[in-house]
Amino acid sequence: MPEHVEHAESTDRTATAVPAVRVEGLWKRFGDQIAVAGIDLELPAGKFIGLVGPNGAGKTTTLSMVTGLLRPDMGRIEVGGHDVWRDPVEVKSRIGVLPEGLRLFERLSGRELLAYTGRLRGLPGAEVDKRATQLLDVLDLAGAQHKLVVDYSTGMRKKIGLAAALLHNPEVLFLDEPFEGVDPVSAQTIREVLVRYTRS
Fold first, then answer.
1. Which domains does the chain have, with CATH numbers?
2. Neighbour tally for 107: CB within 10 Å
3. What's the distance, Cα to Cα, between the start and end of the chain in Å?
4. So what's the pLDDT on residue 77?
5. pLDDT tens digits for 2-38?
């Protein structure tokens, strides 16, 4: 699986810091098809990192395994020093995920979706409301916060999905195709939010 890891934004970290993500000997096979062949990665905290490769290279499969959505055939995955498969509750409380082909509760408004997501994560109502207001404003969705998600454009859906992924202030954020089908203005907004998040 030919992959390239690119480093974009960074902040100073000590060499002894626990990696944000550590992957050792990761394998996944679907029948006779090898989707992921022995990946080893160590991704430091405080960086904005992209995993790139051609279609069918196994990027989404890798991301699904790293985020605990798909069990690997072999290998070990740690996020923030916690094993994804031995301590899944701890890992999932520390990560935010914007998956490819995002499915949303379309009969909720944008604000209702964030309120629901926050409460599922166990956040206090006042905290959810405060964070939702900040994210809706930063992602330029405040004017559409009471509109049903079913009526959102592709770019708006990506942005509300990103807001939901960021709502609990995760230590590590995973995004699969965050700019696919997104207009240039929305893409720039998303990029600015990600850079700001990485710096923090």
1. 1-86 (3.40.50.300), 96-200 (3.40.50.300)
2. 10
3. 32
4. 97
5. 444 444 444 444 446 889 999 999 999 999 999 999 9
Q: Which SS3 state, helix, strand or coil, does residue 150 take? A: helix
Looking at the DSSP bridge assignments, the partners of residue 37 are: 27
CB-based contact 127:118 (threshold 8 Å): yes
Rounded Cα gap, residues 112 and 103, in angstroms: 15
For 93-140, the pLDDT digits (tens) are 999 998 887 788 889 999 999 999 999 998 999 999 999 999 999 999
* Cβ atoms 62, 51 nearer than 8 A: yes
Q: Using the structure block, give the residue that is written with the tokens 């000590």.
A: 14
Question: For the chain, how many residues are written?
Answer: 200
Predicted confidence at residue 43, as pLDDT, reads 93
Buried b / exposed e along 31-59 (16+ C-beta atoms within 10 A): eeeebbeebebebbbebbbebeeeeebbb
Dig out the tokens for 30 from the structure. 């679907």
Of 67, 63, 152, 72, whose CA–CA distance to 105 is shortest? 152
Q: What is the SS3 assignment for 157?
A: helix
Provide the pLDDT for residue 16: 60
